[in-house]
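Let us work through a complete example step by step.
Step 1: write down the sequence.
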Amino acid sequence: MYKTSFVYLMAFVFSLTAFCQSTEYQQKKERKIADGSVFTKIINRELPATIEYEDEDVIAFVPNRLQAPIHLLIVPKKEIYTINDITEEDTLVLGKLFLIAKKLAKEKGISETGYRLSMNINEDAGQSVFHLHMHLLGGKKLGPMVTQDY
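Step 2: predict the structure and record it as tokens.
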């Protein structure tokens, strides 16, 4: 009986590894978090950026690598690593990200033609900066977000 239970337990544990971050990604993530967010450095004016919006809770700026004619990053000033790290107390600032996205889309002239809001969370989504941020993308037809294989 114990042998069978052990086999089931081990099968379960090994199946979980298929849903985990790779060791390499996890190490890179931990290193980047320890070094501090590049976005916090922008917020603190330690790095330059073209700032399009700022208030006491949120900053929006042009990223270094544009992915569309209109591309802004909308970032809470509170350093939150991923959506997985949000709490109830973050509710207002998360809602504010969307209101600011709406405002900036209108100011940039893309609110009626269309735009995309995107957040990348962890390895499979390609998150490389571990400070929650929303991409506002527009100014052209963007096409599907992912390959439509399913």
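Step 3: interpret the result. Helices lie at 2-16, 23-35, 38-43, 91-107, 122-125.
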